[in-house]
Specification:
Layout (H helix, E strand, L loop, with lengths): L2 H14 L12 H10 L5 H14 L3 H5 L3 H7 L6 H19 L7 H4 L7 H11 L9 H9 L9 H11 L5 H14 L18 H8 L4 H12 L1
Helix pairs in contact: 1-11, 2-8, 5-6, 9-11
Length: about 230
Amino acid sequence: MNAKTVRYILDTIGAMFPDARCELNHTNAFELTIAVLLSAQCTDETVNKVTADLFKKYKTPHDYIAVPLEELEQDIRRIGLYRNKAKHIQSLCRILIDKYGGEVPREHELLVQLPGVGRKTANVVVSNAFDVPAIAVDTHVERVAKRLGLANWNDTVLEVEKKLMKRVPRDEWTITHHRLIFFGRYHCKAQNPQCPECPLLDICREGKKRMKSPLNRKDKEQVQKKKTI
């Protein structure tokens, strides 16, 4: 894919979602780390409902380890995989206290060593909490990147991240991450993408395939009508 096409994609998605941002509610790097850890295989909406009370009860790493594991489990029981996540949170908090004075480290290589913190979580934290450019590849980013040809269908998550980092200007990594998420979450959905009204339909490999399907004939007719208006 040439640079002109990449620029067109970025500008188009930017015009659609100019105010894209992290939708996990937080007030500091520590809360963000906990929220992103909880968001694995769970919607941001559910996480925000849980953290609304969680962040009132637990303010510091010391607070999380001052309660029995079972109590923390109950506080996040609405979250998927809550038992494992509760263990990760307490282990993470102990490390923050023992090694980092209770503060979340700013370095990506240190963040990924924390329990429950993978590369995606670390990218979200450094970019949103510490203003370090990064592209976190979640299911939305991966899906959109592959559909638009910014990455190959069989690329791993890490390969998708590397290709986006190569094609997107570094100073746009963080905002592009947010815009790709919004584009995938609210427009280019996994099951029912809004292909008929998508300004990137001519570029999208998935969209072209869907429009050729007999099941999408009405959608195709809708696209044609828009082009003639």
